[in-house]
Amino acid sequence: MTRLFLSLALASATLPALAQDDLLSLLGEDSTVEYTSASFKSTRVINSHSLENVAHGVLDFRIGHRFGFVNGGLNEFFGLDQATIRLGLDYGITEQLMVGIGRSNYQKTVDGFVKYKLLRQCDAGCSMPLTLAVVASSSVTTLPADQVPWYGDGREDFFTHRLSYSFQLIVGRKFSERFTLQVMPGVVHRNLVATPGDRNDLLNAGVAGRIKLTKRVSLNGEYFYVLPDQGPREAFTNSLSMGFDIETGGHVFQLHFTNSTGMFERGFITETVGKWDKGDIHFGFNISRVFTLYDPKAKARERMEQQGGRW
Amino acid sequence: MKTFRRSLGAALLLLPAFTFAQDRFAARNGEISFFSSTPMEDISAVNHKVTSVYEPSTQKIVFTALIKAFEFEKALMQEHFNENYMESSTFPKATFEGKVTPAAGDDLNKPGAHAVTVEGDLTMHGVTKHVTEKGTITVNADGTVKAESDFSVKPEDYGIKIPGVVRGKIAEQIAVKVRIPYAKL
Questions:
Q1: Total domain count for chain A?
Q2: A278: Cβ–Cβ under 8 A, 6 or more apart, which residues?
Q3: Min CA distance, A148 vs chain B (Å)?
Q4: Interface test with A, best of B83, B87, B178 (most A CBs within 10 A)
């Protein structure tokens, strides 16, 4: 009896004291859902899509630029004499859905894509361990018919013959503040191919990652592997790119070395010809500049400010 | 009979714990906003999910604000705020623990507005500073309480480095507004 009494007395004495020491614990943990952000500094790793989208209401103007192969020597000023360019505009329709268009001088191609995040990695309030996104893109070459590389003799120049598609799944995870990794199984479909032996569909798989070196600089890499036994592909190599992301306020500069010339999926996944060991490497850069066109939270903020009248 | 006496004794002993708890005010949707103004750029952000507890009997007051819950006009600003300045994955919260002191002779339990001095430890970005600021506590007729305070903070006091390139865009003194509507807990 006495023992019980004593322990109860102790318990009741410590209760209020504990609560006072940590008033905030009274409120319990907050249950707001928080999605992982900034897995990559940009929506592209180098050539390929990263698992990041532009935010809702944000327009991203992108300039992609690849110089010539560095092994061109002094005569080509180590590649700086040539330039391959893609200009693009991406827009975030929602936090999960983004669309984009681009124009490359590589095969005079216009490309467009839709990227949707099916699953989003979660930091707090839910338990999703990874991000899953799908990217569907298509491209059309606007070259004169006699210059389209896959038009041989007697090929009719139908509009559909100029089209190609790419479907890609991005499975990725920000493992830590510094390290993000994603794998990208996909297929590139070409409506028309050069020879009967070429497959229209090319299965491929990519892997890409980044290591953050400082708050504003990260080291990125990506590699695309085209699965073997898919027609004669001796002339082509797999795409390998390495580079840095440097972020300065509203811009992200991506400086890199890559053996790919094209900057849209069919171009870099299936038509890369450069060999790293031969020095067929492009120096290149992407510049991303974002503009906020629409602020999805503005209305909520206005409402709060109006209610702020109560103060 | 023995059991009854035992439980009565226990109930009596626990009583002070509960009476204590009644005298507390809590808020989950408090508001902290900040504003940085320079000739080059104005930056503002607001957090509507500030939690706070206020205990009039001891004059203690505590706040917690999740850094990631600060909303900016531009998504990129918000990302940079979290990634580059506040490092919110390492330091997810800003907290304040302190006391409110009314003017001499003033009673904080009376209805009406009371000018107070707020003194305590403000922690953010992993750095704790002892601060003393002015504020107002308003006791409403319906028993709710509002607390407000306007003050300014220097990012560099909290170890937040601002690189030279953006120095002109971020004010040295950031104006902070705190508005908390409390209900009885």
A1: 1
A2: A71
A3: 40
A4: B83
Question: Contact A192/A161 with Cβ under 8 angstroms?
Answer: yes
Q: Measure CA A35 to chain center.
A: 17
Rounded Cα distance, A119 and A248, in Å: 29
Q: Record the tokens describing residue B163, joined without a space.
A: 């690189």
Task: Quote the number of domains for chain B.
Answer: 1
Q: Do B49 and A23 make contact, defined as CB atoms within 8 angstroms? A: no
Please state the three-class secondary structure of B47-112 as a single string.
EEEEEEEEECCCCEEEEEEEHHHCEECCHHHHHHHHHHHCCCCCCCEEEEEEEEEECCCCCCCCCE
- What global pTM score does this model have? 0.82
B150 touches chain A (CB under 8 A): no
Instruction: Report CA dihedral (A41, A39, A57, B37) to the nearest 10 degrees.
Output: -60
Helix (H) / strand (E) element for B119: namely: strand B112-124
CB B46 within 8 A of CB B65: no
Determine contact, residues A275/A45, Cβ cutoff 8 Å. no
The CA distance from A267 to the nearest CA of chain B, in Å, is 30
Of A30, A57, A310, the CB nearest to B51: A30
Whether B28 maps to a domain, the answer reads yes
Strands A109-119 and A122-124: unpaired
Mean pLDDT, rounded, for B120-129: 96
A177 touches chain B (CB under 8 A): yes
The CATH number of residue B83's host domain is: 2.40.128.110
pLDDT value, residue A45: 97
CA-CA distance, B152 to B36, in Å (whole number)?
A: 10
Q: Which residues of A fall within a CB distance of 8 Å from B75?
A: 54-58, 290, 292
Contacts of A197 (CB under 8 A, 6+ apart): A231, A232
Tell me the per-residue pLDDT of B135-156, one tens digit each, with 9 for 90 and over: 999 999 888 999 999 999 999 9
Residue B113 has pLDDT above 70, yes or no: yes
B76–A9 CB contact, under 8 Å: no
Q: Which domain holds residue A81?
A: 48-305
Tell me whether residue A235 is in a domain.
Answer: yes
ipTM of the complex: 0.75
Cα of A299 to nearest chain B Cα, Å: 11
Backbone angles phi, psi at A69, to 5 degrees: -65, 135
Q: Are B75 and A56 inside 8 Å of each other by CB?
A: yes
